[in-house]
């Protein structure tokens, strides 16, 4: 999870980067149950793989090969300050109307810079003379490159275990199911986005209570904010917490917890094991303004992380403001593995219960 704010506490949306046009491939995919006129066409893709519970894609920056972290929780494509220095890139501060802008995450405040690279490639997709963001302070190890929502979600995108595939619908009505691989695939509505922030936010239910969740492939585990967990009866044991960090200089408390239910669309997972994280503790320390609590209230209070994505086939249908998902097997939220659903079964609601 990443936010961009000004030192004066006024806020702007981060800049998104345009995905260049990709050559249309021959594969045309009719949407399940749709009229014959509705077509779903593959227009490109990038290879991905799972490494240490993180989704990475191979790429290059100025000819240097690098494994890039697929991080849908950040708005744009960004480099770490250390990586930019190793490449000898020039940096300049990000400003708006003369005000220095800063980035923030679970670890609180971080400097925000911008740089230019001669080229950056994501699989076979290449940008020339690209201007990228550079994040500064990080509490803990930092990936060299974050591939954020500005790249991932400018078209519909399907995520599987080995690829992110970009798709485009034509002549499809709003009620057509674009999950072409099976009938009756569960889906949930996604919140409206802006041209500058394409991150996916959905509403889920934990123990029957709604909570807004940011789909964050950069987080290895799904997590809920401490204050929201307390509302559901969670009480952290003194001294039992670990520490977690990220963008920003601080580390904050983290506790494992088991809840009664997790619901998304028609899928119900019983006894889900989630991380409880003090998501906004460092933010409160670093930004002590009168508007801080309102800013926190407007943020998603849950991260739907890589553990959920790895056990599902997911289609981000931004053209419909829907996220389709089918359970494909393996652990969900760190729970014991359950048998994989048959390939022809669209709904995960029965197979994914724990």
Tell me the layout of helices and strands:
Elements: E1 3-6, E2 28-29, E3 39-47, E4 49-51, E5 54-61, E6 64-70, E7 78-80, H1 81-86, E8 92-93, E9 95-96, E10 99-105, E11 108-122, E12 125-135, E13 145-147, H2 149-152, E14 156-159, E15 163-170, E16 187-189, E17 201-206, E18 209-215, E19 223-225, H3 226-231, E20 242-244, E21 252-258, E22 261-264, E23 267-270, E24 273-277, H4 281-286, H5 292-297, E25 302-304, H6 306-310, E26 312-317, E27 322-327
Parallel strand pairs: 6-13, 7-12, 18-25, 19-24
Antiparallel strand pairs: 1-10, 2-3, 3-15, 4-5, 5-6, 5-11, 7-13, 8-11, 9-10, 10-11, 11-12, 14-15, 14-26, 16-27, 17-18, 17-22, 19-25, 20-21, 21-24, 22-23, 26-27
């Amino acid at each position: 999870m990443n936010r961009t704010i000004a030192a004066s506490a006024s806020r702007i949306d981060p800049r998104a980067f345009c995905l260049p046009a990709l050559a249309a491939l021959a594969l045309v995919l009719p949407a399940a149950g749709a009229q014959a006129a509705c077509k779903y066409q593959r227009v490109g893709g990038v290879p991905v793989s799972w490494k240490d519970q993180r989704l990475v894609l191979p790429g290059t920056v100025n000819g240097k090969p690098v494994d890039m972290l697929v991080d849908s929780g950040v708005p744009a494509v960004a480099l770490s300050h250390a990586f930019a220095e190793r490449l000898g890139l020039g940096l300049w501060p990000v400003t708006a109307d003369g005000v220095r802008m800063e980035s923030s995450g679970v670890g609180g405040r971080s400097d925000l810079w911008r740089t230019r690279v001669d080229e950056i490639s994501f699989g076979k997709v290449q940008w020339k003379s690209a201007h990228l963001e550079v994040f500064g302070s990080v509490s803990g190890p930092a990936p060299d490159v974050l591939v954020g929502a500005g790249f991932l979600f400018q078209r519909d995108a399907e995520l599987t275990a080995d690829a992110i595939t970009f798709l485009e619908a034509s002549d499809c009505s709003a009620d057509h199911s674009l999950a072409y691989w099976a009938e009756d695939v569960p889906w949930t509505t996604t919140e409206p986005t802006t041209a500058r922030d394409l991150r996916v936010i959905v509403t889920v239910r934990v123990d029957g209570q709604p909570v807004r969740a940011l789909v964050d492939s950069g987080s290895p585990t799904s997590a809920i904010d401490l204050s929201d967990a307390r509302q559901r009866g969670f009480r952290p044991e003194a001294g039992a917490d670990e520490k977690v960090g990220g963008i920003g200089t601080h580390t904050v408390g983290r506790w494992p917890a088991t809840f009664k239910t997790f619901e998304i669309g028609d899928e119900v997972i019983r006894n889900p094991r989630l991380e409880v994280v003090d998501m906004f503790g460092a933010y409160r320390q670093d930004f002590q303004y009168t508007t801080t609590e309102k800013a926190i209230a407007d943020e998603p209070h849950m991260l739907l992380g890589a553990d959920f994505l790895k056990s599902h086939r997911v289609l981000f249908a931004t053209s419909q403001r829907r996220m389709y998902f089918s359970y494909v097997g393996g652990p969900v939220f760190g729970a014991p593995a359950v048998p994989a659903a048959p390939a022809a079964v669209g709904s995960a609601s029965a197979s994914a219960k724990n």
